[in-house]
Design a protein that fits this description.
four-stranded mixed beta sheet; seven-stranded mixed beta sheet; globular; 17 helices; 546 residues; 29% helix; 20 strands
Length: 546
Amino acid sequence: MRKAMKQTLVMTVAVTAVLLTACNSKSTSSTQSSTAKVTWSRMEKDNITTMDPSRATDTISYQALKDTMDGLYSYSGKKLVPAMATKIVKPTNNGKTYTFKLRNAKWHDGTPVTAKDFVYAWQRTVDPATKSESAYEYAGIKNANDIIAGKKKASALGVKALDAHTLQVTLAQPIPYFPTMLVNPPFFPQNEKTVKAAGAKYGSTSKDIMGNGAFVLGDWNGTGTAWKENKAKNYWNAKNVHIDQISVTAIKDSATAMNLFQSGKLDDATLSGDQAAQAKTNKDYKGIKQASSYFMYLNVKKVPALKNAKIRQSFSMMINRPEFIKKVLQDGSLNATGVTPTNMADIPATKQDFAKAAAKGYTQYTTYSPKEAKTLWSAGMKEAGLKDLTLTLLIDDTDNSKKSAEYFQNTLEKLPGLHVNITSVPFKTRLSRTLGGDFDISLGGWAATFPDPVNFLDLFTTGATYNLGKWSNTKFDKLIEASKTTDVLDTNKRWQDLLDAQHILTKEMGVIPLYQMVQAHLVNPKMQNLKTGPGGAYNFVGATIK
């Protein structure tokens, strides 16, 4: 998940001082001599969860992994470009075989990166023993499903090293979007020697990892709130890396982030709430639209009442999304009419934006309608045999999450007999609890890992890792499966499958879509040519600081 996981705390002088110390001074390039380090200071809303490419699931860990590692391809803005592969490959064997020639590249310790490093990494990710929550992304590769199910060994995966610099991948069936998946950490190579030497500690500290990317992670102990990324001397494309060091600090409070930027101690601040609203008039403001959607998960497995579609629909219709965005987020985020974000994918035959096309005729399910919501609530509660219901909303311990939770609590409790409690925990704990099903209601989201609607819709199939609420619909499952198998090469049928699936998910409210994120940033204007990919991840290769 890649999932994008989303801050008003009263900061004491001591805490603020610690944060100030953790941040670099504003980009030294503004005052430096020609021999001084070119540095950039940015923030995240929380800490890195893991640097194990097989186990990372959140956008913060993904950004750090993309800074410090390279897969076969990467994104330069919206353009797919070669990274470890020497070129963008055209498949053979009716779209089922990809043969990649690898460039001469090195791990950060100077040893060669070879095709065997990809084979090892991919087999490790798909092996049930690794317990990777991203293993499902391999489903279209030959034998992957049987390996995930424990029916075959990981060595049977359709990937092999023809020689040190040739990697061949065999798919079970053609996958139109397969190349775009290769930019993500689960498909990165892994250094077998490092993985085995670190054992269970692999990916838990900067000493227990090995990268092959533009930067080397340093000063990260697995729990700290600050880390550094230093330019890698052995990176194959080092000549296009113009930043010597990126300093990152986890800052949960938006007011603190704004103060640090204004005092010149932060080059890129991410804001929400009042600070986001204030920042819009600032000359350094940037509203960065994300291909990410945010949801309210309802746990139908843990709470029997939430199995009732009318109750789920009543929750959605009680939420005034435009008001929530305007009064709470204040960052310009967009009202969500479905789980798939806008401006991510167009339907090939009509050139229509998929999300907008899917919303036609279904907007009533995500439109604020308190009267209809209460009618549905009453009917659903009667069918469930209940007069009242108490639920707990699980959230992150950030300023933005707390404000959001209070808004939803106040809104939903207008349904007669509904009581909503709030539990606030650290991001890592919330992620663990939601993945384990230990919640009633939770807030979370997903950022595009590749620009296709199935990237979002597939999340909510029966048994899917990130179907956190455990909603299930047989027809929905069949449509998603058809889009990936029998209809995969019939463009019109495939996209109709996806539209029909989105309609079912929206009507049933298998998950409640809330908003599409627009991140409010204050950015030092000295940064030039910094590009973001379809999912919103930065690509610092090629970026310069004046």
